[in-house]
Amino acid sequence: MDTPGAYETQATEAMFNVTLPEPGWTPQQVEDWMEGFNRGTILSTAIHEAYPGHYVQFLWVKRLNSKVRKLLFCNSNVEGWAHYTEQMMLDEGYGGGDAKLRMGQLQDALLRNARFIVGIEMHTGNMTMDQAKEFFIREGYQVPAVADVEAKRGTSDPTYLVYTLGKLQILKLRDDYKGKLGNKFMLQEFHDRFMDQGGVPLVIIRRTLLGDNSPTL
After folding, report:
1. If I label 119, which of 8, 128, 139, 214 is the partner at 20 to 30 A Cα–Cα?
2. Is 132 helix (H, G, I), strand (E, B) or coil?
3. Three-state SS for 83?
4. Are the C-beta atoms of residues 107 and 42 closer than 8 Å to each other?
């Protein structure tokens, strides 16, 4: 998702980009890559990138009054929210219980879980890139073409664990906030209050919503 900046007034369109196969790939590589964009996962990706994921975040950012919160973001918040919405939307009934959509969402979740482990293991010297690729295939249930790209990304992005980390932090915050409000809890109100804080670390949002410094996990 490529959105305009918070202060952009001219180029106001947002672009949802899909990574196409490389021109020099073999037919089998192309087939593997496109397999990773099945209907279940591409819908999960659309939720993550567009609605109610990153594009909705962009709409809220434009409403913020703080310059700091408009321009600076904590990735466990930003990516955590987008990843959280993949599960939340299906949990709330989107797709009408279609098992294929749930399988796509779970496959994307496994991908992020594998990133969490691979990012740490590669950068602490406990896993080679070939071993990382095999891990994505074996434990993350990814096709080889996707596993190869993910392993390469991990060599320069040790913190691509933020997707799973942020999602778990948001789920815990939601449970704790629900426990605080009891029968007065409303999911939309929680989401609105969460988004109104911008992309700050989850510990700050917990302090705002719960009034304490309780653990984020």
Report:
1. 214
2. helix
3. helix
4. no
Residue pLDDT, tens place only, 72-88: 999 999 999 999 999 99
* Residues 206 and 173: beta-carbon distance below 8 Å: yes
Torsion sign (Cα): 58, 62, 68, 69: negative
Q: What pLDDT score does 19 carry? A: 85
**Residue 13 belongs to what H/E stretch?**
none
Supply angle C-alpha 207, 200, 109, rounded to 5.
100
DSSP state of 184: G
Query: For residues 92 and 95, what is the distance between their CA atoms, to the nearest angstrom?
Result: 9
**pTM for the full model?**
0.95
Name, in order, each residue with C-beta under 8 angstroms of 173's C-beta and a sequence gap of 6 or more. 194, 202, 205, 206, 209, 210, 216
Side-chain-side CA neighbours of 139 within 13 Å: the count stands at: 13
The SS3 assignment for 15 reads strand
> What sign has the CA pseudo-torsion 170, 50, 148, 74?
negative
CA distance 95 to 205: 30
At residue 100 the predicted structure's pLDDT band, cuts being 50, 70 and 90, is: very high
Q: Is 185 helix (H, G, I), strand (E, B) or coil?
A: coil
Amino acid at 198: G
Sign of the torsion angle spanned by Cα atoms 159, 160, 165, 166: positive
Q: Residues with Cβ < 8 Å from 135, sequence gap 6 or more? A: 114, 117, 118, 127
